[in-house]
Structure formats: structure tokens, C-alpha cells
């Protein structure tokens, strides 16, 4: 009996997982389908850019500064053992542009903006606002989901660029101003060693993929949540957990593809 009940629960869980993948794929395709209609009302995207991106700027900037400072400090003590402290600028720039910038920005975005999107959509559903739109012949996917989706896709790469730039400045403050690494060597090593396509472009591509994944997960969790406060809270938690795991998995896969040659 216990084995039978266990198999039944496993089968139900697997069925729910497959159904969620199907519903998610259908919702994603519907978002892409209605997106061209946003060209007539770009103000919807601009409004969400302000809400999603601008309100995330403070935590991204401060985090980037402190991560760059820590990376500069740790990098100096490591490079100093081998007499290569002049390469500190290169280490900081590569670490931020390739990995830390896109990944940490995506994690912060999921925690700050992703949860906000899930809660907002979930509360709109609980308040029957989405149903009211359908009654008025307004497509909630086009009016609510699509502008927020594209705002998130645009925001994450921009925020990742800000994070990396501020992080390099933080590394400069610690390495050059505090410890005393040569200013010219710090910048010249960085300029010579960082490739705009292999390093900066690949990091930018990662942040775009992260933005697509995080924003859609947040919107889908809110859109499919049951219209109760408890389920909206659980959907918000799922957004953070699923987004974080997705970021690490995508980061590994994209790193393996980009830097394998």
C-alpha cells in the first residue's frame, strides 16, 4: 500500500510538472505573439522600465561597488604571491564582465524586481482585475504581462553593465587608491586583456538570457497563482527559488558553450 501511494504521488507530481511546462510554454508564446502590438503604446514599456529598472538601481550600484572592492582586495593578495599585482585591473574586469556582473545582477533582480512582479500580478488576479480586463475585451497578456516582460529583458543587461562598471571602480579604489597598485598598469592591463567580443559581449548575452528567464518566471508564477493571499505568497517564494536555480544552470551551460574553445 505504501509503495502504491508513493508511486501515485510521484506520478501526480510528474504530471503537474509536465503540465506546468506546457502552460508555461503556451504563455511564453502568447507573450511573444502579442508583443508587436506594444509598438503602438511604447509608454507601457517605459513605465515598467522605471518601476523595474530604476527602483533596482540603488541595490545594484551599492552591490557592484562592494563586490568590486572585495574582488580587488582578494585579487591583490592572491596576485601578490606571484609578483603579478599589476594585473589586478585585468582580474577585476574579467571577473565582473564574464561572471559576477551578469550572475549577481540576475540574482539581485530576481530578489527585488522578480518578487515584486509576482506579487503584483498575483494580487491583480486575486482582486479579479485580470478577469475584469477580459470582460472588457482587453487581453491581460498584452496589457499586463508583455510590457513587464520586455521591461525586464531590457533592464537586466543595463543593470549588469552598471554593476560591472561600478565594480571596476570599486576595484580601482581598493587596488590603486588604498593599496598602491600602479594606476597606469591597472588600466593598461585591463585594456589589453579584456576582449570586447569574447568577454564583454558574452557577459552581455548572459544577462539578456537571464533577463528573459527571470522576468518570465516571475510573471508566470503570479499569473498562474491561485487568487488567495497564501498562494500568492507561495508563488513569490517559488519565483526566487526557481529563478536562482535557473540562473546557475543557465550560467553553467552558457559558460561551457562560450569559453569551451
TrEMBL record:
The chain crosses the membrane at residues 55-76, 88-110, 149-179, 200-220, 240-259. It is found in: Cell inner membrane. It comes from the Bacteria. It is a multi-pass membrane protein. Keywords: Cell inner membrane, Cell membrane, Membrane, Transmembrane, Transmembrane helix, Transport. Pfam families: MlaE. Part of the ABC transporter complex MlaFEDB, which is involved in a phospholipid transport pathway that maintains lipid asymmetry in the outer membrane by retrograde trafficking of phospholipids from the outer membrane to the inner membrane. Probably responsible for the translocation of the substrate across the membrane. Belongs to the MlaE permease family. The complex is composed of two ATP-binding proteins (MlaF), two transmembrane proteins (MlaE), two cytoplasmic solute-binding proteins (MlaB) and six periplasmic solute-binding proteins (MlaD). This is Intermembrane phospholipid transport system permease protein MlaE. It comes from Pseudoduganella danionis. The lineage of its organism: Bacteria, Pseudomonadati, Pseudomonadota, Betaproteobacteria, Burkholderiales.
